[in-house]
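Batch job 17 of 40 flagged for manual review because the log was empty.
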Amino acid sequence: MSKSIYFKSDDELHTHIYLFYRALFRRKKHLLLKKKSDNSLFFFGAELNSLTILQIISVFFGTVMAAPLMVSKKANKRIIGYIAMTVGCIAAILVQVSAGLYIFILANLYWVLNSMIAIRKNSKLKK
C-alpha cells in the first residue's frame, strides 16, 4: 500500500477505517413511521408535524403527481397535472414562509402563475 500523508502508518489508517465502518453500521435503521415514547410520530428521523406534512404534500403534488400528468397528450390530464403543481407550489410557499425563505416564495409564485396560464390555455383547447 502507498504511504498516506495523513496517517503515520498503514496500521493507523486501517484502524481509522475500521472505526468508521463500525460506527456506520452500528446506527439503527429508521422505519418509515416510528413512534417515540412521548407518542410523537417520526418520519425518516424527522418529527412529523404540520411543516413536515406540508413538505410531503409539496413533493408529492408538485413533482411526483404533476410531472407525468403535465406531459400527457390528453388536455384533461394536463389540466389535472397543472392543478397538482399549483397545490404543490402553494404547500411549498407555506413551508417557505415559516422558514423565512422569501426569495424561494417568488420562484414558486412564478410557477403558480405559469400553471394558471397553462390551465387557461388547455381549457380553451378542450372546448
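Reviewer: the log was empty due to a logging misconfiguration, but the result itself is present. Residues 75-99 form the longest helix (25 residues). Unflagging and moving on to job 18.
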